[in-house]
Amino acid sequence: MEQTFSQPYKHYFWKRFFLFFIPLMVVGILSEPMIIQNPFEELEDYGAFVLFLGIYMIVLGGWAAFMTSMMWNVRHIRRRSK
After folding, report:
1. Cβ of 53: how many Cβ atoms within 10 Å?
2. What distances in angstroms separate CA 43 from CA 3, 40, 47, one per listed residue?
3. Angle formed by the axes of helices 9-30 and 43-81, to 10°?
4. What pTM was estimated for this model as a whole?
5. 1 CB-near residues (< 8 Å, 6+ apart)
6. What is the per-residue pLDDT across 8-45, written as a single tens digit (0 to 9) for each?
7. Which of 16, 47, 53, 64 could make an S-S bridge to 21, C-beta 3.0–4.6 Å?
């Protein structure tokens, strides 16, 4: 019971991951006052900027990966039902 698909998961994932990640990152950064309104007067301000940027990249990257995986699963379910 072998199924062949036009695109393997890895290719599908990386092709679509950035389509979700970049818009999520832009919206996330533009809506975060700790990143946008940071005065950069002291060393702690730079550290806070890097910390928040890193947290946003990890969390929004996780959301983008989750949405991409769910799209792959929906695609598989539709192909199996045909």
Report:
1. 16
2. 56, 7, 6
3. 140
4. 0.79
5. none
6. 899 999 999 999 999 999 998 898 888 889 899 999 99
7. 64
